[in-house]
Write a structure and sequence with these properties.
Blueprint lengths: L5 H19 L8 E5 L6 H17 L3 E5 L6 H8 L7 E6 H10 L7 H4 E16 L9 H9 L6 E4 L5 H13 L4 E4 L3 H10 L4 E5 H10 L3 E5 L24 E9 L4 H15 L2 H10 L11 H19 L5
Parallel strand pairs: 1-2, 1-3, 5-6, 5-7
Antiparallel strand pairs: 3-9, 4-7, 4-8, 4-9
Helix pairs in contact: 2-10, 4-12, 7-12
Length: 325
């Protein structure tokens, strides 16, 4: 047996200290995972979060709890998430409203999505779609609608899910793009706005494709344009608004976020398991049923994508003059 030198003794001592620390470090995940959702149950974001949670619970071997915290434009969920431990057991599924728009809309937030949240994956996207009540606005193409609005400045109203919402800001971007005044009619959510659109109490609005699709297919409303760069397969024959108003874009994306400070190994595990979930047959069926499109953006490129989206929506807020209510 070789003699125990001072160097050997120090090495053994250090190993003795490290061993208990390694033994105490819990494997991830060591308890149920909570996914915060800034909207009520049943909406598009909630549906995606629940589908993702079901797949992650299988691959991670822990229950996944969906925590719906609506209110204040999503800031209620954002604050709760920001107060969580950065260990991967708390995640956030959110849209541009919480991540990009609220920074320009609210004078002060208790958290900063740029510095507190870390984008992990874009789960899906859907374009917003311009829809009209065909009795109130009996047009079959976008140029005819635009000519009608321009000839009646301020007389044509558009509904939205609320002041400062993405649907409101999309309407304001449309108003600015056509250079004509319009009247904004805010509702408490897109569902009551759609109800009034179908009834003819408001003649037009922008809505998410997945939400509007049943009414479009049923003939209650008419789609005149999708706010994506290319046509959407769910609406054959409906052109992109950008074909008439170049550069017009309004896409509702949903992303998965972790807290900054989460260990790299945990982030890597979350990223890998999320990729597996998105590639599963179950998620593929959901995408087809709900008219979702995938967003295969590498994680290294996500901060740049979010920064670009933040700037675009910040400009839209400034252009609209909207303030948080």
């Amino acid at each position: 047996m070789p003699p125990i030198t001072r160097r050997t003794s120090l090495a053994l001592f250090a190993a003795g200290l490290a061993a208990p620390a390694l033994a105490q470090a819990p494997a991830f995940p060591s308890r149920p995972i909570r996914i915060f959702v800034p909207f009520a149950a049943g909406g598009t974001t909630d549906i995606l979060a629940r589908a993702l949670g079901e797949r992650l619970s299988v691959t991670l071997g822990q229950p996944v709890v969906i925590d719906n915290r609506g209110g204040a434009g999503g800031t209620v969920a954002g604050e709760a998430f920001a107060r969580s431990e950065p260990d991967g057991h708390s995640l956030l599924v959110a849209t541009a409203s919480l991540i990009c728009i609220n920074k320009a809309l609210y004078p002060r937030l208790a958290f900063d999505p740029d510095t507190d949240f870390l984008p992990m994956a874009m789960l899906a996207q859907q374009p917003n779609v311009l829809v009209v009540n065909p009795r109130a606005l009996p047009f079959t193409d976008l140029p005819a609608l635009i000519a009608h609005i321009r000839a009646r400045p301020g007389q044509v109203a558009f509904g939205s899910s609320g002041t400062g919402s993405q649907l409101h800001l999309t309407g304001e971007m449309f108003r600015a793009a056509i250079g004509a005044e319009m009247t904004h009619v805010p509702y408490r959510g897109s569902a009551p706005a759609m109800t009034d659109l179908v009834a003819g109490n408001v003649p037009m609005m922008f809505d998410g494709l997945g939400t509007a699709l049943p009414q479009i297919r049923g003939g209650a409303i008419r789609a005149l344009g999708v706010a994506s760069a290319a046509p959407n397969a769910a609406l054959p024959g409906v052109p992109p608004i950008a074909s008439v108003l170049p550069g017009f874009l309004s896409v509702n994306w949903t992303g998965l976020f972790a807290l900054r400070g989460t260990p790299d190994a945990v982030l890597a595990r979350i990223e890998a398991e999320t990729a597996k979930a998105l590639a599963s047959p179950e998620m593929a069926r959901l995408f087809t049923e709900r008219a979702f499109d995938p967003m295969p953006i590498p994680r290294a490129e996500l901060p740049g994508f979010v920064a670009g989206e933040s700037q675009r929506w910040r400009d839209a807020v400034r252009q609209s003059g909207a303030k948080a209510e």
